[in-house]
Amino acid sequence: MAFANTLSQRAASLLETVAPRGGLLTAATAAVLGSLLLAASAKVQVPFWPVPMTMQSMVVILLGMAYGSRLATATVLLYLLEGLAGLPVFAGAGAGPAYMAGPTAGYLLGFVLAAGVTGWLAERGWDRSPLKAVGALAIGHALLFVPGVAWMAVLFGGEKAVALGLTPFLAATVLKTALGAAIMQAAWKVVARRSQG
Questions:
Q1: CB under 8 Å to 136, separation ≥6 — which residues?
Q2: Host H or E run for residue 54
Q3: Which residue, of 50, 138, 175, 196, is most buried by count of CB atoms within 10 Å of its CB?
Q4: Between helices 158-165 and 130-156, what is the axis angle to 10°?
Q5: Tens digits of per-residue pLDDT, 7-44?
Q6: pTM above 0.85, yes or no
Q7: Which residue from 144, 152, 172, 165 is spatially nearest to 76, judged by alpha carbons?
């Protein structure tokens, strides 16, 4: 019974804590800024082994943790609509309907799942504890990879999908999970200091 109560209790998101009186304008501004941050994170490549990494998956999950489930999901959907409309928001040069049905389509679906579920976990306080934050980020990354690799398996077969769509990114995912958890802990410390000061 206590576990069920914990799952049903909703904590304020980081954004709601920073802007407690935020209304529709605050949410719309946050969604637009979040979609721009996603687009920027897709374009920046960090040299890493075995493949360069973008910070996009971490940004998707951190938006979930900072915004909460509904606003984070809406932000990612806005980002995907921008890409569907042909705006150059994705990691590659392509955009539009054909790009969104290509090999990365499963990962794009995973963005929506990861943002929503990670936001839901944050609303249950998972973003405020280092260990739980790592768990939430790991779950978010798993939700990115499952539909991404599954769709690649449909297109290219299971072995090739794992070799191309999962294995090269595992080391970077561990790094981004740790970094994302540290960022959330630092953000909450800043908010706590500001509220005390």
A1: 61, 65, 118, 121, 122, 126, 127
A2: strand 53-54
A3: 138
A4: 140
A5: 568 888 999 998 888 789 999 999 999 999 999 999 98
A6: yes
A7: 144
